[in-house]
Amino acid sequence: EGPARTEESISAIISDENADLFVTETNNQIIGFVHVLTRQAPPVPIMVSRRYAVLENLAIREGYRRLGVGTSLLKRAHQWALSRKVSQIESNVWEFNEEAITFYRKHGYTTTRRWISRRLPQLIPITPVQRTALRMPQGPWLPNHPHNPD
């Protein structure tokens, strides 16, 4: 479930020409939605610049899962992405969300990278220490090294 989306956030998605929001209703009640958008990877030396789609959010109300609602919304997101001339769609899934991982795998998604994190301990006061100069042996990384062209 989670917090409800505000009217402002939904309006922002709808007015964004690079994003869309599709919903499925039954009995005048939203039972599922998908938020999809396009992104342009920046042209940086370590990455190939590319335009791709992101499945930002796909949620189905409890009680309506495994009835084809998610599949229908996912197909709609794929159609939207193809209409934007992108050839790849990506999404993030929490590691513990085995139901979602199974769903995406069933629809041809594969893991292409892992986003890892670590909780840091609370800050501990550090006693200031005197800085000392560190003498290092010469090497190719130092200006006076004979193999350095400078």
From TrEMBL:
CDD domains, per database record: NAT_SF
Listed InterPro entries: Acyl_CoA_acyltransferase, GNAT_dom, N-term/lysine_N-AcTrnsfr
UniProt entry tagged with the keyword Transferase: yes
GO molecular function, one term: acyltransferase activity, transferring groups other than amino-acyl groups
Record's signal peptide: none
Keyword tags: Acyltransferase, Transferase
Keyword flag Acyltransferase: yes
SUPFAM superfamilies with a match to the protein in the record: Acyl-CoA N-acyltransferases (Nat) (SSF55729)
Domain N-acetyltransferase as annotated: residue spans: 1-130
Protein name as it appears in the record: N-acetyltransferase domain-containing protein
Originating organism: marine sediment metagenome
